[in-house]
């Protein structure tokens, strides 16, 4: 805890560079209702397959914790990117991609996550380029 912040806790981050992070991405359903949807299962499997095809590893965190706690937990593990599937994703096939260090998010098609993750992990593109290319998501 930092002095003067009341009950706020300091954010713990294991800041692996994307190139050396053991896991590049975590996939998070927004909440448990989404995790029970067949379309979520299909979307998650497709993202995992594309990420694996590029030679990277990813995890899925579908625990009952809040989304913020799951973001924090994966930040502490050093996973540089998080892909969130929400209720809109089930309708428009788009997901939210969050970068660990800036905590900024963009919205993109689920089928482009693997290629973008590969480009980010191999430094072919920067997060600043991504922020300029895809719509921001709050």
Describe the structure.
- The protein is built from 6 helices and 5 strands.
- It has helices at residues 32-35, 38-53, 67-76, 89-92, 113-121, 127-133, and strands spanning 25-29, 58-60, 81-85, 94-99, 105-109.
- The protein is 36% helix and 17% strand.
- It has a 5-stranded mixed sheet, with helices on both faces.
- The protein has 138 residues and is an alpha/beta fold.
- Helix 2 runs parallel beside helix 5.
- The model has no long low-confidence stretch (mean pLDDT 91).
- The longest helix is centred in the N-terminal third of the chain and has 16 residues, at 38-53.
Short description:
The protein is 36% helix and 17% strand. It is built from six helices and five strands. Helix 2 packs parallel to helix 5.
Number of strands: 5
Radius of gyration (Å): 15 Å
Strand order of the largest sheet: 2-1-3-4-5
| Helix-residue proportion | 25-40%
Structural class call reads: alpha/beta
Report the portion of residues in β strands: 15-25%
The string of secondary-structure elements, in order, is EHHEHEHEEHH
**Alpha-carbon distance between the termini?**
26 Å
The pLDDT mean sits at 91
Q: Count the DSSP helices.
A: 6
Main pleated sheet: 5 strands, mixed
What are the segments in which pLDDT stays under 50 over at least 5 consecutive residues? none
Give the overall shape, derived from the CA principal axes.
globular
């Amino acid at each position: 805890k930092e002095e003067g912040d009341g009950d706020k806790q300091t954010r713990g981050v294991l800041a692996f560079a994307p190139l050396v992070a053991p896991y590049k991405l975590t996939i998070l359903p927004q909440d448990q209702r989404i995790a029970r949807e067949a379309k979520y299962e299909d979307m998650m499997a497709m993202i995992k397959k594309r990420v694996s095809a590029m030679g990277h590893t990813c995890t899925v965190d579908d625990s009952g914790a809040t989304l913020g706690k799951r973001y924090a937990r994966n930040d502490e593990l050093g996973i540089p990117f998080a892909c969130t599937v929400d209720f809109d994703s089930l309708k428009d096939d788009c997901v939210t991609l969050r970068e660990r260090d800036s905590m900024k998010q963009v919205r993109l098609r689920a089928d482009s996550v693997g290629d973008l993750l590969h480009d980010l992990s191999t430094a072919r593109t920067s997060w600043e380029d991504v922020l300029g290319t895809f719509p921001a998501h709050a």
